[in-house]
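tool_call: predict_structure(chain=1)
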Amino acid sequence: MDIIETIGLKHRPFLSERFRQMHLNISDYTFANLYLFRNVSHYNILTKDCGTFISAYNRQDQNYIMPLDSPQNCSPDTLRHLANDGGFFFPIPEAWLPFFPENEFSITFDDGESDYIYLTSNMASFAGKQYTRHRNHLNQFFGAYRPLDQALNADNVQDAAAVLQHWQEESLLAENKTDYSVCMEALQKFSELALWGTLYYIEGKPAGFIVGEALSKDTFCLHFAKGSKKYHGIYEFMFNDTAIKLQSQYQYLNLEEDMGNGNLRRTKKSYGPERILKKYRVRLKR
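tool_result:
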């Protein structure tokens, strides 16, 4: 008998532990991402005899299924049934592809859904030709400003919210065209979601922040980076400083996907990703 539950904060211990056991570095597989985008993607937990899955919808309103364990535990009949009901499986790591018989399933991927993975040491040093422009912006930033940082917490979260509000106004877009509301909820439930972050001040005023969480033992995922445009080089500074803070614990940084946005793609590529992590779609052949 199938059991369907809407994702809530009560599921954090179970899902967080499951994600740790999966040992994947895919950004979708974090509790914070599932919870914060629960209304956008309509995430529901689906429990079947062979395991647990997430039912969801993407930006094109297509239904898909996220396995919460290796598909090898499910019979071909169950996989076929799920694919029939759910549209397709996603995001599937390359290591799981052999569990879907080639004669029954087709495999595709979308570049806009791939994660950008960086060596933390590279982001912490900005060394080499790849980082010439970012290094120059960082030097210009330090030439103009003397930033101070604080660990993000309940005492200063309102300052981070002020940064987010200013960022939204600078974007000149409607709130429903940005991740404003999702990021605001992340700040409001920062402790409940077990997030990590840093808030930056310039001349005593909140100027930017970064929020993220661990994906695995060697990879940290950055969910949000928000800063004011008036501080030239602030993003280079925040990424560089975050990498310096995390490099003793994590070998890699995951800056998530570019969602097919050309400007975002160029920016993320400019930081020299170590690799682009493909996330596959697997569907039944018709």
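agent: The mean pLDDT is 93. Proceeding to next step.
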